[in-house]
Model the fold of this input.
Amino acid sequence: MAGLIFVCIADEPPADFDETAKIFEPYLAPHDLAKTKVAYQQNIIEEGNWKLVMENNRECYHCDGHPELACSLFPTWGLTEGLIPAHLEEVWDRNKEAQSSLEERCRRYGLPYEVVEELDTRIAGIRISRESLDGEGESFSPDGRRLSKKLLGDLRDFRLGRCSMHLQPNSWFHFQSDHVITFGVFPVNEHQTLVRTTWLVADDAEEGVDYDLDKLTYTWKQTNLQDKAFVELCQKGAGSPPTSRALT
Ligand SMILES: [Fe+2]
Done:
């Protein structure tokens, strides 16, 4: 699907994959994954059940715990009007303005941005949208500015926020104008999970010239470490009282 390969080992794979692919492809195709290369891949083991990893990824109440990510990803994600904590009201207003401006640019370039969310009506739930980033609105950097000088695919503008895609049961993705990040979650056992993160840049982007690898990977490396700690804390909670203790 648009340069991504999915493998399902279930005896009866979801029958609606082609239908799902048709929803995703118009969002992803302009980034032309076939003309990208892997800049870096990270594997980390989290001491938590894979379902806690996915659950943690789906909520943003903890996003205040991601100071590097919050420079570009609005930490109001998932919140709704009228329920914004006082300390995030200014951020909420800035996000609304940035989103409106992004949608105008998307209409100009013919890029879809609307939220499609079908999480509980499909066996493999989906969500996709294009959403604004803070600062310059280009990428996951401290000032929201591009992290690679090469635009992906057919894109003509760096200021396109993030096209974020979620595909249950175990993956999510962020497509920016300058790079793509993919996340795969693989259970090792009931209390350990492998999280694989892959950074992709344009295939003609040159490391040290068009992008700095440390800067490219910094925000999500930090975020992954923070999420690892959150998941492990949740695992401790989920495992309490210790399952080995006899119930009386
Ligand atoms: Fe997180």
Summary: The beta strands are 36-46, 116-118, 126-131, 162-167, 171-175, 179-189, 192-202.
